[in-house]
Amino acid sequence: MFSRAYSAVIHGIDGLIVSVEADVSDGLPLFEMVGLLNSEVKEARERVRIALKNSGYMFPPKRITVNLSPADIRKEGTAFDLPVAVAILTAFGHVLEDNLKDTLIIGELSLNGTIKKVNGVLPLVYAARQRGFLRCVVPKENADEGAVVSGIKVYGAGTLKEAVQMLNGFDDYKPNSVDIGMLFQGGHSEDGLSDENVDFSDVAGQAAVKRAIEIAVSGMHNILMIGPPGSGKTMLAKRIPTIMPELSFDESMEISKIYSIAGLLGNRALITGRPFRSPHHSITSTALVGGGVTPKPGEISLAHLGVLFLDELPEFNKNTLEVLRQPLEEKAVTISRLNATYRYPAGFMMVASMNPCSCGYYPDRNRCNCSLNMIKRYLGKISKPLLDRFDICIEAPQIDYKELQIKKMEETSADIRKRVQAARRIQMDRYAGQGIWFNSQLTPKSIHKYCRLDAREKNLLEQAFEKMKLSARAYHRIIKVARTIADLDSSERITVRHISEAICYRSIDGKYWGGEGL
Fold first, then answer.
1. Is 491 exposed, middle or buried (0-12, 13-18, 19+ CB in 10 A)?
2. If DSSP codes are grouped into helix, strand and coil, which group holds residue 337?
3. What's the CA gap between 330 and 208, in Å, rounded?
C-alpha cells in the first residue's frame, strides 16, 4: 500500500514543497525514514509511532518506509511529524487519498497526539499557494499566521485525530480568516516602540541632527552620529521608526516571513511596523549576519526594511563590524554550507552612534583627557571602508543649559513623517518598474540617468573630490544624498545648495579620521 502527502521545508526565507511518501508492506516489522534527514526529522519516527498509538490508531505490524522527496535537499525541523503520520494513516485506509492531492500539511506532534506550533508557517503557506495548492492544514496556534496569505484556505488543527477528521471532510470545517486592515491599525515597530510612546518632540535642540536623520530616512541612507555622552544620539535613534513610512502589505509579508522562520512572530499573525533592531556590542558575527549549524537569519535580516542601530560603534568587535561591508552593498547576505546555500534579505538602514574618544569629549581639550594615540586607537576601530558605507556623518554637539530650559515646541514625528512620505512618493514614481525603491539603491549607471548635474554642480563636486580625497564610493553617495535632499525640496533638478549640504555630511569624518589635530 502506497500513499503520498505533501509538506514543505524552509530554504533561506522561501519554502520548498516536499513529497512525503509512505509504503506499507508485509515483512519484518520496521519503521524506516529516508531522504537526507537531519536528527530532529529522524526522531519524528518515534514521535509519530507513539502519537498514533495514543490517538487510538492501531495497525498490524508491517514494514513501513517513509521517503521525503526530493532526496537531495536536507530536511530540517519538526514540521514533518504530522504529514508523516497522515501519509501512514492514508496507506492504512484511515484517510481519503484524494483529499491529499491539493493539501499541504505542517505540524509537530506531541506524544499524546497534540499538534504543536512550529516556526516558518508563513513562508511555507506562501510557497503552497504559489505551487497551486488549494488548502493547508497547520497547527491551530499557527492558523492566523498562515491565514494572512490570500488565495489559499488555511485550517488549524489541535490534535492528530482532528486533522484526520478534517482531511476526510473539509466541508465540516471553516478555514481561518484574518482581518488584514485591523492588523495594520496602530502598527508598532518590532521592538515595541510606538508613536504614542516616543516622539521627536521629546528631544530638545539638535536641529541639525534631526535634519540629517530626516534626509537619511527619506532615502534610506546609512547615518553615523558622533558626539559626547548625553547629547541625545541614542534618544534620536530610537525615534527613527516614528518618522518612517508605514509598511505596505508586500513589505509586511517579506518581514513577517523572516520573523516566522526565526520564531519571533510570537502571537502575531503579521509584522505591521518597521523593524528596529539594537544588538548589544558583545554580539558575534554569526548572530549579526546569520548562520549557525542550522542556518537562521541574523540581526541584519531581522532589520530588513527597517533600522539596525549600533550604539557605541567602536565597542563592537572590529571583525564583527567588517562582516557588514558586503551586506551593506548587496542588501542581502549569502550563507554557504556543504549541502546548500542560503540567501537572506538585508535591506536595512544602518544607524550608528559613537563617542569621539574613550572619555567621549574630544575635541574639547578642557574636558578630554585622552592622548592623541588613545584617540587614534579608539577611532581606528572603525575602518575607512566601513566608514565609506555611511552616506551621512553628523556631529551631535553637547546640549547647553539654555536649550533644555527654553519652552520651545519641537517638531513632532507626525510632521516630519509627512515630508518623508512625500519624498518617498517622488522616488516611487521616478523609479516605477525599475526595481529601485529608494535613492540609496541607485547604481553608478542609474545615477547618470536620474541625477543629472549641470556645470556648476559638477565643478563643486570636483573641488570636494580633490580637497577631501574622496573615494569613488563616497563620491556616488554624496550624489545620492543630494538627490534625496532635492526630493525633500520637491525639486527635480539637483542644485548647488543640495550638493553643498550633501558634502557637509561627508566633512565630519575628515575631522575625526585623518583630519584636524590627528
1. middle
2. coil
3. 30
The closest alpha carbon to 157, from 115, 122, 124, 125, belongs to 115
pLDDT in tens, the chain (518 residues): 899 999 999 988 889 999 999 999 988 888 999 998 988 899 999 999 999 999 999 877 889 999 999 988 889 889 999 999 999 999 999 998 888 999 999 999 999 999 999 999 999 999 999 999 999 999 999 999 999 999 999 999 999 999 999 999 988 899 998 888 887 775 555 554 444 578 898 888 889 999 999 999 999 999 999 999 988 899 999 999 999 998 888 889 999 999 999 989 888 888 988 999 999 999 999 999 998 877 889 999 999 999 999 999 999 999 999 999 999 999 999 988 777 788 999 999 999 999 999 998 888 888 899 999 999 999 999 999 999 999 999 999 888 777 767 767 788 999 999 999 999 999 999 999 888 889 999 999 999 999 999 999 999 999 999 988 888 999 999 999 999 999 999 999 999 999 999 999 988 877 788 644 45
C-alpha cell recorded at residue 422: 512625500
DSSP 171: G
The residue among 167, 165, 137, 172 whose CA lies nearest residue 152 is 137
Domain span at residue 288?
200-414+423-433
Q: What are the Cα distances from residue 201, in Å, to 189, 215, 244, 412? A: 18, 17, 15, 5
| End-to-end alpha carbon distance in the chain | 79
Report how far residue 227's alpha carbon sits from residue 358's, in angstroms, rounded to the nearest whole number: 12
Residue showing cell 536641529: 207
Return the number of other C-beta atoms located less than 10 Å from residue 297's C-beta.
26
Give the separation between CA 235 and CA 412, rounded to whole angstroms: 14
pTM greater than 0.90? no
**Grid cell locating 65:** 518506509
Same domain, 128 and 228: no
Whole-angstrom distance, CA of residue 252 vs CA of residue 269: 11
Q: Strand 63-69 relative to strand 103-105: parallel, antiparallel, unpaired?
A: unpaired
The whole-angstrom separation of Cα 378 and Cα 374 is: 6
- Tell me the C-alpha distance between 222 and 505, whole Å: 11
Bridge-based pairing state of the strands 223-226 and 392-395: parallel
Residue type, 60: P
Is residue 457, in this structure, part of any structural domain at all? Answer: no
Q: Answer yes or no: are the C-beta atoms of 261 and 297 closer than 8 Å.
A: yes
Domain identity same for 142 and 238 = no
Q: Please report whether residue 250 resides in a domain.
A: yes
Number of domains making up the chain:
2
Residues 129 and 213 in one domain: no
Which one of 368, 401, 433 terminates a domain?
433
Pairwise CA distance, residues 28 & 146, whole Å: 41
What lies within 8 Å, CB to CB, of 286 at 6+ separation is 292, 298
The span from the CA of 323 to the CA of 317, in Å, is 11
Q: Are 285 and 160 in contact (CB under 8 A)?
A: no
